[in-house]
Amino acid sequence: MSEIELQNLSKSFGELDAVTDVSLSVRDGELLCLLGPSGCGKSTTMRMISGLETPSSGTVYIGDADVTDEPAYDRDTSMVFQNWALFPYKTVLENVAFGLKMRGMGKQQRRDRASEMLDRVHMDGYESHSPTDLSGGQKQRVALARSLAVDPDVLLLDEPLSNLDKRLREEMEIELKDIREEFQKTFVHVTHNQDEAFTLADRIGIMNDGRLVQVGEPNEVYRDPKNKFVEEFLGDTNFVSGTVSDSDGQYSYLVTEFDSEIRVPVTSKIQPEASLTVSLRPEFMQIAPLTDESTRASHQTRADGNGGGGGVSGTVESTIYRGSSIRHVVDIGGEQLFVEQSVTDQSAIDEGDTVELSWDIDDILLFRPDGTRVRDRQ
């Protein structure tokens, strides 16, 4: 069994608290991504799992064993580093076989095993090459083969794709998914790249300021973020600040920074005069040219919008083509909102056009000034 259990794990470097009270369970055979900005503690957490760092407090279990005080070489883990950590004076084959040599495997057996792993990561034929002759993507494949060669229960990957360009990174994401399914190992993957985490992970653990903020499946953390930090970190969004004016029992009304009211869900925790921030993700918003009918609606104090959500009108300030989508930046009374439109959408919208933006009320998320989420819709 290769479950990982972290209990109240903390790590300080002098006066710097790098990781604070992290408790986390990684299931046997799953791929969990630790995701967060630079300096949030995710790599330090991984290094404590591997044994390369000793916790200041807390406990690390792998399977049923307490390995908190065990050195890295006594743990059934292997790590792929961000900078690959290949020996430049050894051949590719010797690099892959190095861990096997340290474990006492015979020469021919470790050569056979190393060759097998190089073939698995599509690096057969490079056995006699020096790592200095390889591209970044090839180096990463060799580093992955070296980690797989020792057949660890737990594979740890610390920003393994960050040094690759977009095309190579996407190729390696597919490769990692295939390898994970084939070898059935427990993977912990550290990254600051949201797309990478969403592509690879069974579950995502989001970290900030040394703390574990939220853990869940990719769709769960994206659609149901615990706080404003998670909502902002996991993708582009529009944050609109406002103050609650009143409620009609079905909706509350928020006077916003672009000098109009929008509807938000009524909850038991919204009171008049409360300050709130609304999150409107650009892919959940609709954009349409302003017609005479919609002009009349937009001039109402409280526009209906789609699904009882709301709507505002403005002028397209800029249009950016992004491949499969078009991003429109819309000026609304001196403030800006941006919205994504599919390239297959038949509504032709250009810079300078007057448009209406609308959204469904179910896609609105509300946050308090301290960043906590407002929930408990009535």
Structure description:
The chain has 378 residues and is an alpha+beta fold. It has two domains: 4-233, Rossmann fold, CATH 3.40.50.300; 242-367, OB fold (Dihydrolipoamide Acetyltransferase, E2P) (Beta Barrel), CATH 2.40.50. 24% of the residues lie in helices and 34% in strands. It has helices spanning 42-50, 92-102, 107-120, 136-149, 166-183, 194-200, 218-223, 228-233, 292-298; strands at residues 4-13, 16-26, 31-35, 57-62, 65-66, 77-80, 154-158, 186-191, 203-208, 211-216, 238-247, 251-256, 261-265, 275-280, 285-289, 310-321, 325-332, 335-342, 354-359, 365-367. The chain has a six-stranded mixed sheet with strand order 6-7-8-3-9-10, with helices on both faces. A five-stranded antiparallel sheet has the order 13-12-11-14-20, with no helix packed on it. A hairpin with a 2-residue loop joins strand 17 (325-332) and strand 18. Helix 2 (92-102) packs across helix 3, helix 2 (92-102) runs parallel beside helix 4 (136-149) and helix 3 packs across helix 4. The protein is elongated and about 75 Å long. The relative contact order is 0.11. Residues 294-308 have low confidence and may be disordered. Pfam families: ABC_tran, TOBE_2.
